[in-house]
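Hi R.,

As promised on Friday, here is the backbone we talked about, encoded as structure tokens. Could you run it through your design pipeline when you get a chance and send me back a sequence?
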């Protein structure tokens, strides 16, 4: 059996910007770069920009043909070696006249049947992966058994609705006679409702577009209700992903403890709201009357932080409404289902067949089907309630087991210290921060796509504003606000940004947005030693090149755009290898820094592999030494990667 997996090394090309045999760090003379001897007045900088979504997307690899799954032997060594051989072999596609797309991962199975082909039906193969399976105990399933005394089989009839069919559950020979073991216990009920005391009955209601005051992701401070100054779409029609720019007014942001301000590369937190359509759908599926949905009620918890996000772990009694809790406090679509929710639905299912299926998913015998749900496309709470319509647990019990709706973080896409050049009607300076958000989409069980919680929330705000602009309405009359908080401004990009030394900024998709702020700051205090280069990975410059012409400088001197779906069809990691001289010069310079921002899958992994290849070629290092070299630079704060 092979003791290690030998990886192929991508060749670092020889060109005017790449000399693999030269280990001396030298600044490339053929590469355009920015040299400014005097500071540029802040008023000359273009401030039309935005920031990056940590839930956003970056340039992914395109898929290749899926390799077929070979038959395997039953011994542990043969199973493991077969998987390794398959992985190695898949990395060397046959040469063809047409350039093949490359995938960042190798798909060796899609269903439980494929896994059985690899591991076999016995237990020997299972032990190979037992410690690294999906985390839900996927390898601990037990076979279905029928009672020995059973004279007839009563099969389970599957629910006939589209939501259930979309789950693609593999129930095997499940029947009402099947014996189920190791069933998950009924979860603890930690939430309850009670009437509002008389002294609180007349308390003024909160704005519907802002979370309740007890939602505190940055305690002890409350979420700030920031006016939305403007929004626009950065991508063009036909782009694979939609990206929006937001100008958020933080002029009146309250003072907080400590010497913290908005900084270059910093990220703000935004508290998203579940859409009204999703919330009303849950109400309808639980048969909650409309008259009580917005009625004030006391919510009582026995322990934990919910619904405060990061409050102390303790019992609480809070004034709220059922709609507030579903809209701002519980995530209805971002997490894979748990056995606790299946067990709760089973407890309240009135249909005999639905109850058996739900108990099956809560048992050891249903472990395979359960893991298929967890490792596949995330199912939503409305989807589960629609799939099992007879299961209608009390809302307070359901809230006890749902995940907390967490804030989403987005990097600033401009230098927040740029002098004010926007004034209101009274001549008062407005302080704006800018972010860019790429809308995340996933297949919806009804057909089409659904948007992510955070990006979908912000897209709805942007569409409201853009629609009003098209009609010629005054957008200030919309009174749109973004619930946000500044936080500690201590994310990696903010911590490691410095005003001196050369910088290489590598980003793909919306990951390039925070680098615009880096360039703007350098323009304010630039001198001949402050050199900055940007490698921007996109799909097509005509559709999704973000902030084209908005970097406050002649872009050809700072930025190189790499298109994966147009022109030469290259990924940004390929350009990293092609710019080996620049990479080696920057990372070995005094105060030199290499920043990487974008999706960790595909782009992030690819860029890191390219950087290792550059170190191997330029430094005459082996792979282990090259990886150690970059780890040392990361520990020293010279190599900073912020990926998601």
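Update: got your reply. Pasting your designed sequence below so it's all in one thread:
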């Amino acid at each position: 059996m092979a003791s290690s997996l030998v990886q192929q090394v991508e060749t670092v090309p020889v060109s005017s910007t790449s000399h693999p045999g030269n280990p001396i760090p030298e600044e490339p003379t053929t590469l355009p770069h920015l040299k400014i001897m005097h500071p540029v007045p802040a008023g000359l900088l273009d401030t039309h920009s935005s920031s990056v979504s940590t839930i956003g997307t970056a340039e992914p690899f395109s898929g290749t043909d899926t390799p077929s799954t070979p038959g395997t032997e039953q011994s542990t060594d043969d199973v493991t070696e077969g998987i390794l051989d398959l992985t190695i072999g898949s990395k060397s596609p046959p040469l063809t006249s047409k350039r093949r797309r490359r995938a960042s991962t190798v798909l060796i199975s899609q269903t439980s049947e494929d896994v059985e082909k690899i591991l076999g039906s016995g237990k020997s193969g299972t032990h190979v992966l037992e410690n690294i399976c999906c985390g839900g105990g996927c390898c601990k399933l037990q076979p279905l058994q029928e009672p020995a005394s059973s004279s007839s089989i009563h099969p389970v009839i599957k629910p006939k609705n589209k939501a259930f069919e979309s789950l693609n559950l593999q129930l095997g020979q499940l029947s009402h006679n099947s014996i189920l073991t190791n069933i998950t216990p009924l979860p603890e009920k930690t939430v309850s409702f009670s009437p509002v005391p008389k002294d609180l009955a007349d308390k003024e209601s909160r704005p519907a577009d802002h979370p309740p005051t007890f939602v505190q992701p940055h305690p002890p401070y409350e979420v700030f209700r920031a006016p939305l100054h403007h929004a626009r779409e950065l991508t063009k029609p036909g782009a694979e992903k939609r990206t929006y720019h937001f100008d958020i007014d933080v002029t009146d942001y309250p003072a907080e403890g400590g010497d913290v301000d908005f900084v270059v590369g910093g990220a703000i937190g935004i508290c998203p709201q579940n859409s009204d359509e999703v919330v009303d759908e849950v109400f309808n599926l639980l048969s909650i009357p409309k008259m009580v949905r917005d009625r004030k009620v006391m919510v009582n918890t026995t322990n934990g932080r919910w619904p405060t996000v990061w409050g102390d772990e303790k019992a609480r009694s809070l004034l709220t409404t059922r709609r507030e809790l579903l809209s701002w406090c519980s995530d209805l679509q971002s997490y894979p289902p748990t056995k606790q929710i299946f067990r709760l639905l089973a407890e309240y299912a009135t249909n005999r067949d639905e109850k058996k299926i739900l108990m099956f998913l809560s048992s050891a015998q249903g472990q395979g089907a359960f893991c298929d749900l967890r490792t596949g496309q995330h199912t939503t709470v409305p989807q589960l309630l629609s799939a099992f319509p007879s299961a209608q647990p009390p809302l307070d019990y359901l809230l006890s087991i749902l995940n907390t709706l967490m804030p989403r973080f987005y990097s600033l896409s401009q230098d927040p210290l740029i002098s004010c050049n926007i004034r209101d009607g009274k001549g008062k300076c407005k302080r704006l921060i800018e972010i860019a958000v790429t809308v995340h989409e996933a297949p919806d069980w009804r057909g089409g796509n659904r948007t992510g919680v955070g990006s979908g929330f912000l897209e709805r705000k942007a569409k409201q504003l853009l629609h009003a602009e098209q009609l010629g309405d005054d957008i200030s009359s919309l009174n749109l606000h973004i619930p946000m908080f500044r936080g500690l401004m201590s994310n990696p990009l903010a911590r490691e940004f410095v005003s001196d030394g050369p910088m290489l900024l590598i980003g793909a998709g919306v990951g390039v947005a925070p680098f615009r702020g880096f360039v703007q700051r350098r323009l304010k205090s630039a001198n001949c030693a402050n050199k900055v280069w940007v490698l921007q990975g996109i799909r097509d410059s005509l559709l999704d090149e973000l902030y084209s012409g908005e970097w406050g400088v002649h872009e050809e001197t700072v930025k190189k755009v790499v298109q994966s779906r147009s022109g030469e069809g290259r990924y940004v990691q390929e350009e990293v290898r092609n710019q080996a001289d620049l990479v080696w010069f920057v990372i070995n310079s005094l105060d030199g820094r290499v920043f990487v921002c974008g999706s960790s899958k595909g782009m992030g992994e690819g860029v890191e592999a390219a950087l290792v290849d550059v170190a191997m070629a330029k430094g005459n290092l082996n792979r282990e030494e090259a990886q150690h070299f970059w780890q040392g630079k990361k520990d020293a704060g010279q190599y900073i990667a912020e990926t998601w």
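One thing I noticed while checking it: Residues 1-8, 36-104, 122-132 have pLDDT under 50 and may be disordered.

Thanks again,
M.
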